[in-house]
Amino acid sequence: MKIGILKEKNDARVSIVPDTVKKLQALGHLCSVEKGAGALAFHSNEDYEKVGASIENRQTIITQVDLLLSIAPIPADELSSAKSNLTQIALFEPFNQPERINSYAQAQHNVFSLDMIPRITIAQSMDVLSSMASIAGYKAVLLAANYVPSYFPMMSTAAGSIPPAKVLVLGAGVAGLQAIATAKRLGAVVEASDVRAAAKEEVMSLGGKFIEVEGAADDKGAGGYAVEQSADFKKRQQDLVQEKAKKADVIIATAQLRGRPAPILVPQSTVDAMKPGSVIVDLASSTGGNCAVSKDGQTINYNGVTIIGDSNLAALMPADASSLFSRNIFNYLKHLTDKEGNLSFNIEDKITISSLIVANGQVKYKK
Predict the structure, then answer these.
(1) Is 130 a catalytic residue?
(2) Superfamily, domain 2-116+337-363
(3) I want to staple 183 with a disulfide (CB 3.0 to 4.6 A). Which of 46, 167, 252, 306 is the partner?
(4) 128-316: same fold as 2-116+337-363?
(5) CATH architecture of the domain covering 128-316
(6) Is 167 helix (H, G, I), strand (E, B) or coil?
(7) Buried b (16+ CB within 10 A) or exposed e, 195-217
(8) What is the pLDDT of residue 84?
(9) Kind of pairing, strands 189-193 and 279-282?
């Protein structure tokens, strides 16, 4: 199978790094890499050539390959010269952008969406979302520490002691747990809130204090995502968050709802009550944000509070993020291919059927 690795247009990461190309070539696949694809992730064209890949221009790759790998989907209008049975693997987010699925179906393509891989034990090594969320949680704390005008750890000096920073983490999924762990390593006092009761033990194991609101709906079948809560629960949660936020130096907001807008956990009234110099990092900004004031892709100052809206913090660590993303794809491809290296469309397999959104021109995804 001939595999194409394309350069991301608005991302410093690359979907496949040279080490993974070497593994793919060993399995009998041929890899073509777009010129400069790995440059911003610190992988040169020569690095790819050393492991057997060919360096080609973008259009040549699109025209010749059987499988296209990327992080962001390739727009359908770029694929007019592609093979009719082309297979694409990327982060398609069909629940957010269902309209583009039809264009791939009309072109008779096969589409596997990495964000639809089920978050189950057997698929952990393929879970791109978790890999990137872990980096985002780590980076969120470092960004907050850079902006907050005080120490994270308690500091004892000749002039007296400085108390540790208070960090509030909203959402204790992969990103939230990594944020808790990172903030604790930096010496902060950390509190965390999550609607899932199962998160309490994980938060406490990392040294955080769990803020518990009674009466949460806990859907164990939600695949690691938060679920929609009742109006009464959300009101009580907001009241408690506002109380904690008034005292917080940093809020890291990570709560996402698949296919729906992110829940507002930090309303404007809460931001109004926060201390000047406080920092909010909103990792859910691309789906509306957990903070009512945040703006996606922007860092703003709101009455003395710095608000960072960024759902793509993993791209700020392109070297390690690309390495993890690449390993996830390799493990996913091993699962999808048979002994001869051909792609499998086994609809009896949970991982395959969950992530296969277009097969031979037929839309398989159902919202």
Answers:
(1) yes
(2) NAD(P)-binding Rossmann-like Domain (3.40.50.720)
(3) 167
(4) yes
(5) 3-Layer(aba) Sandwich (3.40)
(6) strand
(7) bbeebbebbeebebebbebeebe
(8) 86
(9) unpaired
pLDDT given at position 137: 98
Residues of the chain with pLDDT under 70: 216-228, 367
Q: Catalytic residue at 119? A: yes
Residue 15 bears catalytic tag: no
Q: Tokens 């999550």 belong to which residue?
A: 194
Say if residues 100 and 77 touch (Cβ distance below 8 Å). no
Q: What was the pLDDT predicted at 218?
A: 59
Per-residue pLDDT, 198: 80
Query: pLDDT tens digits for 328-363?
Result: 999 999 999 988 888 888 888 999 999 999 998 899
> Quick one: tokens of 75?
């727009």
Indicate if 225 belongs to the active site. Answer: yes
How many angstroms separate the first and last alpha carbons of the chain? 31
Of 147, 151, 225, 302, which is the active-site residue?
225
Known catalytic residue at 127: yes
b/e for 242-253, b at 16 or more Cβ within 10 A?
bebbeebbbbbb
